Every structure is written in structure tokens, then in C-alpha cells.
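input
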Amino acid sequence: MRRLSEPQRDCPLCPRLVAFRQDNRSRDPDFHNAPVPSFGGRDAHLLIVGLAPGLKGANRTGRPFTGDYAGDLLYETLRKHEFAQGDYGRRPDDGLVLVGCRITNAVRCVPPENKPTAREIATCRRFLEAEIEGLPNLRAVLALGAVAHGAVLAALGLTRSHFPFRHGAIHDLPAPVWLADSYHCSRYNTNTGRLTAEMFDAVFAALRTRLSGVAA
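output
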């Protein structure tokens, strides 16, 4: 039986995240305030892995990278490189459709200050492992940030020291997928110049080129 790839709405695995979820439900009862499911079809060739839901982004809307600046940059870039179709409207019912790709997070619940602990990342790994196993056409994984990079390697049973995180790198793994790296598309990274729109665009251009032989 395939392992469960999505945590239940009231997932009890991480006590600190459970407490934070309960506080958020009391404070903002109209928010999603639950583990955020993956977005996109299971026929995807590309899986994009972020860190965790944003407090007022995906934790509010219930769709990865939806409702905050990181999503503005990500979905605009996906549309440019034909990994998405339709208009992105910062809401889950905007009609946006992913094409040949899927989006998830290393940690499915919003953490305080957007900083999951190492234990929480390890605990949530079971869902990332099942996610990867459940994509039969998967060819490439894009890790947004070093934490996601490490989580993907751990989910694949690989050692991080053998594949160091580096923006723009594409690692040929001893597995049937490639691992690409990008700095996270957060407002902090773009405001500080760590990541520019041009740098982010180049990552997806390289992925599109490598995936060009794979039917979308």
C-alpha cells in the first residue's frame, strides 16, 4: 500500500506546530490553518519543494506559495516557462493550472517565525518521501533553499555532503531524478539582492531545457 502523502488536517506529529496551529485558528478562524496539501497533478515531471507554508500566504489560502510575495515571483516565472497556465490571483480558486509540475513543502504546517526545527523537518519527511514515490513520471526536483535541498536528499536516502547546496546547480543523483537548487524566492532574499528575478528565471530556463525531451 502506498504511504500517505498528505497529512491529516489535524496532524498531531509535531507538538509545537500543533500548538501554533491552534493559536492561529483562534486568532484567524477564516484561514486554512492546517497542513497545506501539494498543488499540481501526479503526472508531473518536475516537483518544486519549498520550506514551509507562509503564515499569511499558504497557511491562509491552503495552496502552496499562494497569497504572498514568494508566490507572485514563483507563479509568474512558472507561467513564463510554460509550467503553468492561467492567471495567478493570490487565491486558490484563481483558475491557475500547473503543467507538468507539482509544488509541495518540506514541512507542511506553518512554523513560528517561518523556522521549523530539525526534528520537525525530519518528522515531516515521511510525507515528502511518499510524495516523491507517488510521482511516476518525475524527472527533476527543484529545492527552494538549503533546508528543502537537505530534506529532498534525506527523502531519497542520500548524503548532503556529497551534493552541496549551490544556487543554480543541477545535481545528477544516483537516482532516477535530478536535483536543482535555487535560493528561496522570499521577499527577504529578493530585497537583499541574494536572489534576483533574473537569477530565478535562469534556474527555470535551465530546467526547461533539460526537460525539453520529456513530454509535458
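quick obs: The radius of gyration is 16 Å.
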